[in-house]
Design a protein that fits this description.
about 100 residues; mainly alpha
Amino acid sequence: MLQPLIHYGIHLIVPLIIAYIYFKSKWKLAYVILLSTMLIDLDHLLAMPIFDPNRCSINFHPLHSYIAIGIYIVLLLPKKTRLLGLGLCLHILADWVDCLLM
C-alpha cells in the first residue's frame, strides 16, 4: 500500500508543490507541463505484458533508459527546457523509488 502512495505522490503531489511554490503566477501552467511528462510512460505499450508490477521500468523501457535519463538531466540546464527536464526527472525518481521498494 505504501509503494503506490509514494509513487503517485511523487507523480502528482510533488509537481503541484513545486509549481505552486516556484511558479506562483503561472502555477497551473507549470503543473500541467510537469504532469505532461508522464507521457513518457507511453513506452510501456512496447512491452509484453504492458504492465508488470514486478518489473523495474528504469533501463527497461526506451524512454526510461540511462541514455534518456542523461538527456532529461541535460534538459535541466537551459532555462527554456528546465521545467520539462524537472518533470521528466521527477518521473524517473518516482519509478526509481518503485524499483527500490519492489
